Amino acid sequence: MLAYPQPVTFGAASPQRCASSYLPLPRFPRLPLTRSLIHIRPIAAFVLAVLFTSAANVADCPEVLLGDYSDTADGPAVVRVERVNGRVQARQKDANGQWGTAVFDSPVVPPHEVRRLIGPIDRSVPVCGLGVQGGVLLKLPVGHEYAVSSATEKSTVPQKAVSGYLAYQASGFAVSATDLFPVVRHGASPLPPPIPSKATVGMEVPALPVCAGQRLPDMSQAAFDALPSTEKNGFHRMEAPAQTRFVCGQHLHDLMSQATFLSPALGASRGDTLYRISTLLAAGQIPRNAAGEASWITASQGLLAHNRATGKETIPFQNEYYALFIRDVAPRLSDVADSAVNLYPLVYLLKEMILLPAELGTPTLKALGQKGLLRRTAGAAGETIAIQLLQHSTPTIPPETFAFLLAEGGPGAANHSGVMTTLIDNPSAKHIQLMLNAGARPAQHGWLARARANPAAASTVYPLLLNAAAANARSSPEQARQFSDQITMVLGKLLKRCPTDPADWQEIDRLVEQGARMRGVFDNQGFSETNLAVYALRCPDGFQALLQRGLPLDANYPYPDYAGKRQDTPLLMYVTVLLEDYPPLPSTLKAMLTQHNNANVRPACEGCNLLSPLEMAVQAGHVEVVKVLLDFGADPNDPNKDGRPAFIRALVSNNVEMLEVMNAKRKLDVNRMDKKTISMLAWANCLGAKEAAAWLAREGAVSQGEALCKKP
Length: 712
Description:
The protein is of the alpha+beta class. Among the domains are: about 10-185, no CATH class; about 220-410, no CATH class. The chain has 34 helices and 16 strands. The strands form four sheets. The protein has a ten-stranded mixed beta sheet with strand order 2-7-6-5-4-14-13-10-9-8. Strand 11 and strand 12 (about 155-160) form a beta hairpin. The protein starts with 8 loop residues before the first strand and ends with a helix. The relative contact order is 0.04.
């Protein structure tokens, strides 16, 4: 030192009544609340489930909260709480503005748990809470103050209940709330679908809407009749709800997406799953989620993810699954992409597709690219989908696919920092060459230094980047300047290692020949994590090698940023910086003074040290350093701006040995007076330096002005 969770949605397992256990399901459809109530992470669900467990005996609360609610003061109802067959349930409006058929049991949250959740409320004030999908519906006093997460989610901010009805929700460690406003009940709640009954032979596919979303099955009776007997026999062994899932597409969704069927460890069972998926797709079946929506995207993502090796393991039927995806699923994605409102699930699928063998994945991506999909943006960063894909598992993307994505990514793709740094950190010469072919300019963003510092990249992608950057530097003065800056950063990384191998110095010399600036490593803290004096102390051999190569010493250099806006000459820095394990060496000091002798020069620049090199060396107690400075002409009698000689620093530290060393080289002016007419002996007495005062007295010094130096 110097001396100075994608969110997990909790919802219904079917469009019918949901139990209150809040089991996690993938991607339940978002309902049209201004701030949705349905997204909650598992940790929050656990907390809420604990609140609900002791609620069964609280009887009056539900009646208080029954009714319709809007999320704006004068808006339409979006949430309904009602009692059906003795059970309190909540439902929401669907995307068409109609009351949804999905209902959710709403357990009571007892008052003491409401108070614990929302903050202190006088016990005489009635409160009420019901568990709703994704949170708690609360009845609170108007104006009650509670806490929600700030925008950064690193603190909380106070809010007040406006309407007295609050949807309180959590996502991970973030808590938010939505004021709800009671409105007049409007529109009848749809009856839940009838409990399905077992299908009879010849009528396995119902002719009336029984599927989620009030849909008819996608599979026709004729298609069912044409199924292999094994599938039909298995169907008739199912219970009625499972039969409904089979004909309505949820069973196909499960087969395509769940590890239960697709795990590589399943071996032969994967072959059976492959056969069943292929059979159902051939019968016109569409994978559908619990809400009855076509799930080509999410089911396909699971299909590909479970067929991608994470190591060197062999996955049974991998090629067959890929062929099924390309043949039977990929053609449906173009239509899906046209209507996809939320692109996130599609982006996740594309991140799996780019890892397919190029002969399979690239044509499919090109088909989507023709619709402009890859140039659309998704997410807060505003980056195109092509750029997002390029940053995902970058080195493992087949080169043909990577080149296509670069073209789709537009002019900025080849110079995108996230893409290039991923390729440097996980070196891939093929992919970096494609980036260079597409116009990447390596002399930016510290890419060269990053590649040289990475052992895996130093011998592979670093030479590619360096040669390309050197070629670009010849195109314009601006490119030449950037190249010089970037290889100066590389030079700094190499020097920081304290190189001793001749091969390292040959590389350093090549960089200097190409424009790297030795002084630039130390005169700009953006290039260096240290400063020149620290380097000279830690790497004396390397420092002397730099001196031999012309490192200038007749200039001022900055200290590290943490030392403030300061600078000094290299000599003054060398005797000022104190590193416990790296004391200054006389040999290094001699080399510095031989090249540039400023041993007796006081600095005269803004931010420079006010003391001379000799004063600093005396104050630090470096006897051998003081001797070298004296040998090179440093004058211990040289006065500072206050008229005090350099040897006064020995009086401050009461160091008689230092006084004798200086006196032996050059007779000390022991009767020197400073500008206040205070003598050196008076200063020694005022400082309490008894041994130094005695030495001065023996040398004939007299005391004058002690009364002045004792004044505060």
